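Researcher: Re-running this chain for the archive, since the previous output was lost when a drive failed. Same request as before.
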Amino acid sequence: QTDERTPIPVRLGVGFSEPEAVEYNMFYAKVRDDFYPEAMDNARYNIRIHYHAYNDDHGWGVDLRDPELLQNVNRIEDKIRLLNHFNAPRPKLDVLMIFGYPAQANWFPDAQNRNDWDINGGLEAMEKATALWKAGYLCALVASYEIDSGKLTADSAGHVIYGGQRFSNVVYIGAEYSKPATLDLLERFTACGGKLILDGAATHDFDGRDITTRFGRIAARASVAPCTPDAVAKLGVKPNPLADGISYEDGSVILTNLESEMKNQPRPFTLRLAGHEFTGSYVGVLGIKVGEGGTLDKLAGGQIRELDRDGKKIVGLSKPADLYLKRGADGHYEVWLVGDHSVKVHVK
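Model: Regenerated C-alpha cells:
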C-alpha cells in the first residue's frame, strides 16, 4: 500500500517488490471530484483506492458520507470490479529506475542538498521518474536496497530482473557510496549489453574505498547523463502509444476513461493485437486479451455492445451491458453479465 498522491512510478516500484499483482493507494482529498480520476486512473495500472477516511471529521479531506460522492464512487467502482475478474498480471514497463539508497540517505558533505526529511534531496529521483512518466515513458522507481535484499537481480542476457519482469533499459541515479551488490549488478548488466543511464558520478563505495577506476569502467559502457525524457529516448525507448491504457505482461490491454463513465458516453477504441485489428467501444473500463491467431481469450468492459476483429463481429450483445467473458480450455466461453441478465450474448 502506498499513500496519498504518490507518483505512479513509485507505486509500481513498491508493488513489484511483492508477489501480488494488485496494490492499494490510500487516498483522501479536500475536493470531492478528485476521487473520481484517481480511482479510474489507478485501475489502469492494477492499483485500487483505499478510501480514507469514511468519517473524516478533522478536515483532512471531504467527508465520504457525502451522498453524491458515494453515488459517483459506487458507479466507478462497479466498473473497476470488472477488471478484478479480468485479473491482469502486472503492467508491462519499459524502464526500471533505481536510486542509490546510500546516496539518498547521505547528504554529507553537501549540506545544501539536505532537505526537510534529512535526506539528499539533490538526487531528485522521484521528480525525474515523474518527468519520464508524464512524457509517456512507462517506468518504475525502486531503491537500491532491493538489490541488497536479492529481489532485484541481473541475468547473463543484458536484463535486470525485478518483480518477475525483465528490463533491458535501466536508469541509475546516485551511485555514490554504492554497496558491493550494486556495483556487481551494474558491472554484470552493462557487460552483457544492458542499456544503462548513469545519473551522477561515484568516487567512493559504501565503506569509503576509492572506486573511481571501477566506476569508470561501468560508465564507459553506459550513457552518463542526467535522467531526462530525451536521454531515455536515445536508448531507443518509445513512449506508450495508448492514450487511455497500458499493455500488460501477458499481452492483455487495459483501457480506462472517466469521461465516458460520468457522461455515460461510449468511447471508441482500436487496438492492434496479435496481428489483428480489434474495434469497438466501452464505457469506463475495458480489458482485452487475445491469444495466438487473434482468438479472444478474455474481455471485460462497461456497456459493451459489440467487438469486431478485422471488421467482422466476434462479440455481439442484444443491448449494451457490463460484462466479463472468458474462453475455456474447451474453446467455449463463459459469460458474466452485470444487472440485466436478459441480454443475449453471441460470441464467435
